[in-house]
Amino acid sequence: MKKEYFTKTPQETREIGKKLAEKILRKPLSLKAQVIGLRGDLGAGKTTFLQGFAAGLSIEEKILSPTFVIMKKFKIKNSNFKKLVHIDCYRIEGSSQIKELGFEEIISDPQNIVVIEWAERVEDILPEETIFIDFRFMNKEKRKILLGF
Ligand code: ADP
Ligand code: MG
User: Fold this and answer.
1) Cα(64)–Cα(117) distance, rounded to whole angstroms?
2) Angle at CA of residue 61, ends 60 and 67, nearest 5°
3) CA 117 to centroid of ligand 2, rounded, Å
4) What pairing do the DSSP bridges indicate for beta strands 71-75 and 131-137?
5) Which has fewest Cβ within 10 Å: 38, 103, 125, 130?
6) Is residue 4 predicted with pLDDT exceeding 70?
């Protein structure tokens, strides 16, 4: 099922991220990691969404757009999920580069939540169960968010 949202502020986008995190925390662990693929152009709101998502997991560290870092891990407390893995594919040249980071192992661990920015660039290696979220820039403040969940 697809849900469509329009947000008018970064805070509204964070709020949608937070709600999704709360929903995922209520799900029982599956056999593999929960993978979430964020698609959309630069400035569309992917990192902003993830900031709200991390807040929903009670992660206090700042989530930034990594300039040189491709992957960052955050501890999740008080949940069956143990780690949030943030992967940003903006600078990668192909899926093989992600594989080199130990991607197969990361997505095999049921206690991981893996959020991937620029997921369209590595779609060929994402599991079938990936939740895709599409971000569209409408105007300076308005974004469209399409959630396939
Ligand atoms: P991405 O990760 O997709 O490149 P970012 O989340 O880093 O995008 O950047 C989005 C930028 O747009 C931020 O500077 C944010 O403050 C701004 N912005 C303005 N309106 C919104 C909105 N409704 N939702 C999300 N971000 C917004
Ligand atoms: Mg980003």
Assistant:
1) 12
2) 150
3) 6
4) unpaired
5) 125
6) yes
Q: What's the pLDDT band for 66 if we cut at 50, 70, 90?
A: low
- Write down the pTM of the prediction: 0.97
SS3 content of the chain, % helix, strand, coil (to 5): 30, 30, 40
Measured in whole angstroms, the distance separating CA 36 from the mean position of its chain's CA atoms is 5
User: Is there a contact between 111 and 119 (Cβ–Cβ < 8 Å)?
Assistant: no
Query: Picking from 6-20, 35-49, 65-79, 115-129, which range would have the lowest pLDDT averaged per residue?
Result: 65-79
Q: Is 113 exposed, middle or buried (0-12, 13-18, 19+ CB in 10 A)?
A: buried
Atom 15 of ligand 1, residue of closest alpha carbon? 10
Q: What distance in angstroms lies between residue 81's CA and the mean position of ligand 2's atoms? A: 23
CA 111 to the chain's CA centroid: 15
